[in-house]
Amino acid sequence: MVQERAERTRRAMVHAAAEEIDRSGYHGASLARISRSVGMSMGALTFHFPTKDRLVEAVQALSLSMVGEAVAAVEAGEAGEAGEAGEAVAGGDSVQAPSLGRARALILAISRLLAREPVVRAAVRLGWERPAQEDWTASWLPRVRELLVQAHADGDLRQEADPETVTALAAGLVQGLHCRMCAGAGAHDALGQLTSILDVILDSLSAPCRGGQDTPRCSHDN
Fold first, then answer.
1. What are 145-181's pLDDT values in tens digits?
2. Residues near 209 by Cβ (< 8 Å), separated by ≥ 6?
3. Residue 90 has pLDDT above 60, yes or no
4. Which sign does the torsion angle of CA 14, 18, 20, 21 carry?
């Protein structure tokens, strides 16, 4: 019981720290504000996290866990629920779906997580402000690249569509979502725009349907 209570306290402190970093950045984040926001004394905060850097490490670890869970959910075919943008991100069995559709599902799942979770946005901001930190995209973008390479090999992407370039486009879209939200855009509107842009990109880069019809295969609509 005591251990569970201590873990809940630590988690509340980490979430409060993430919200503070999301708003004010690493240098602007105040341990005093964090402790007040969870109704704890500064002594209680520093008992669990002696330094700001230790708190930052906990924020980044939680973000990594959240992203990992999102990636695993897409791989397991559990990311088909309607997102905040108002549409499903994956149809049918994700394991059997074309790689291009799974790449789309993963990009949208990460985008929704970024839009909804201050912990993830804080980790992104920490990556900007502290370049020595590992780039947060390392926990999901390589999988997007793998799926796009497979889609290209399967013929789902046009021959001239370089998977590395499409991967860079995906990373830019997700980073742009964060920039829009930093500028005050609402999560629903920002996610809706990202989804529309992503679908335009994928539709234009999808190989024509087999059988000679000159229309995109649009595997992400499966």
1. 999 999 999 999 999 999 999 999 999 999 999 988 8
2. 215, 216, 217
3. no
4. positive
206 SS3 class? strand
CB atoms near residue 114 (< 10 Å): 26
**Pairwise CA distance, residues 124 & 174, whole Å:** 11
Alpha carbon 131 to chain centroid, angstroms: 19
- For the question of whether the overall pTM of this predicted structure is more than 0.90, the answer is no
Give the rounded distance of the alpha carbon of 168 from its chain centre.
15
Across 74-86, average pLDDT: 59
Q: Which two tokens stand for residue 212?
A: 């000679």
End-to-end CA gap in the chain: 47
Instruction: Look up residue 138 and give its DSSP letter.
Output: G
The pLDDT tens digits for 125-155 are 998 888 767 788 999 999 999 999 999 999 9
The tokens for 93 are: 């069995």
For 108, the token pair is 């949208």
CA dist 130 and 132 (Å) reads 5
Rounded CA-CA distance 141/136 in Å is 9
Cα(160)–Cα(89) distance, integer angstroms: 26
- What pLDDT sits at residue 79? 57
